[in-house]
Specification:
The protein has eleven helices and ten strands. The protein is α+β, with helices and mostly antiparallel strands. It folds into two domains: 90 residues; 231 residues, Bira Bifunctional Protein, Domain 2 (BirA Bifunctional Protein, domain 2, 2-Layer Sandwich). The chain has a seven-stranded mixed beta sheet, with helices on both faces. A three-stranded antiparallel beta sheet has the order 2-4-3. Strand 3 and strand 4 form a beta hairpin. Helix 1 runs antiparallel to helix 2, helix 2 runs antiparallel to helix 4 and helix 5 packs across helix 10. It starts with a helix and ends with a helix. The structure holds phenylalanine. The site of phenylalanine (PHE) has 11 residues, from strand 9 and strand 10.
Length: 344
């Protein structure tokens, strides 16, 4: 085989093997095999000196061309492999930036707090101010000053927690927020326009509609010429802002020792417009609070003339929240289940 033929066969096998190389390591091996000091091109180069001048020129040129071709093929193959490796690495390290991030849990107001604030806001909008009173209250403010004497049967309307303080005066966990009517009137002459939100406690059997501890909002308005119509008007404005602008308020005769006359306050059912549904238990009306004109005996106990006029009302916050959010069971407000508390 002539030297030129041999060079051409080297060229073919080298390019062939390079074409099949699948890693840069393999390319480097081939580079050493074909272009290294012990490779076939080097061998041909060493034999040049023994060739006649004409042939030496031809073989030399061919050898240079073949070396150039192999070098170019190596460079091309390395570039191609580099590109592939880079793409593979990118694929392996792929980052899915469309995954939602991890949200830190954020707090929010308890539904009862929201409802309490909403109720208070409505009365503040009507010109009432806000006061709070003690949870542990004397028997005097809880009952006696509210026209409920020591052995009066009306005490059994509230199954009370008595607190043994050792003091001569009996203390109770207040069974309603009404004691604040007395404290407020004792503290200043009329006029009074105040609402009193607060926790109350009763020795009640706990079920879907009763809790032993719950919240009330008391209202008291004492001024000249306050009438039952004022009471109804105020409660109507409240109920419409709370539950819906087209409902009707109905007052139903009732009894509380500290109001005369007394009333249970109903609103026409905001869920069915009064035609009767599950929310109003088919009644068309929903009771939302107790109310009445302040009893003259209460005015007497705070040293006001018995001819003073005023109204009072008291509502349960849990009950209002239960209606507003269509909650079946009052206990769910106190179970701290975030699925419930966060579900509005
Ligand atoms: N204190 C009464 C109760 O707890 C509610 C009420 C307040 C009624 C004020 C009339 C006037 O049931």
């Amino acid at each position: 085989m002539s030297a030129v033929d041999e060079l051409q066969s080297i060229e073919r096998t080298a390019l062939d093997e390079l074409g099949g190389a699948d890693s840069s390591e393999r390319v480097q091996e081939l580079q050493i095999t074909y272009l290294g000091r012990k490779g076939p091109l080097a061998r041909v180069g060493k034999s040049l000196g023994g060739l006649p001048v004409e042939e030496r020129k031809l073989v030399g040129q061919t050898a240079n061309r073949v070396r150039g071709l192999i070098e170019a093929a190596i460079a091309e193959k390395l570039a191609e492999l580099d590109k592939l490796e880079r793409a593979g690495r990118l694929e392996a390290e792929r980052l899915d930036i469309t995954l939602p991030g991890r949200m830190p849990p954020t707090g929010r107001l308890h539904p009862l707090t929201e409802v309490l604030e909403e109720i208070v806001d409505i009365f503040v909008g009507l010109g009432f101010s806000v006061a709070e009173g003690p949870l542990v209250e004397t028997d005097y403010y809880s009952f006696q000053a509210l026209n409920i004497p020591q052995d009066h049967a009306a005490r059994s309307m509230q199954d009370t927690f008595y607190v043994d303080t050792g003091a001569p005066q009996p203390y109770v966990l207040r069974p309603h927020t009404s004691p604040m009517q007395v404290r407020l009137m004792e503290s200043a002459p009329p006029p009074h326009y105040v609402v009193v939100p607060g926790v109350v406690a009763r020795r009640d059997e706990i079920d879907a509609n009763h809790l032993a501890q719950f919240m009330q909002i008391e209202g008291l308005a004492v001024d000249e010429n306050i009438s039952f119509a004022d009471l109804k008007g105020v409660l109507e404005v409240f109920a419409r802002q709370m539950f819906g602008s087209n409902l009707t308020v109905r007052m139903h005769p009732s009894y509380f020792p500290f109001t005369e006359p007394s009333a249970e306050v109903y609103v026409s059912c905001f869920a069915c417009d009064g035609s009767g549904c599950a929310t109003c238990r088919g009644e068309g009306w929903i009771e939302i609070m107790g109310a009445g004109m302040v009893h003259p005996n209460v005015f007497r106990s705070v040293g006001y003339p018995a001819s003073t006029t005023g109204f009072a009302f008291g509502m349960g916050v849990e009950r209002i929240a239960k209606l507003k959010y269509s909650v079946n069971d009052l206990r769910t407000f106190y179970e701290n289940d975030l699925r419930f508390l966060g579900s509005r």
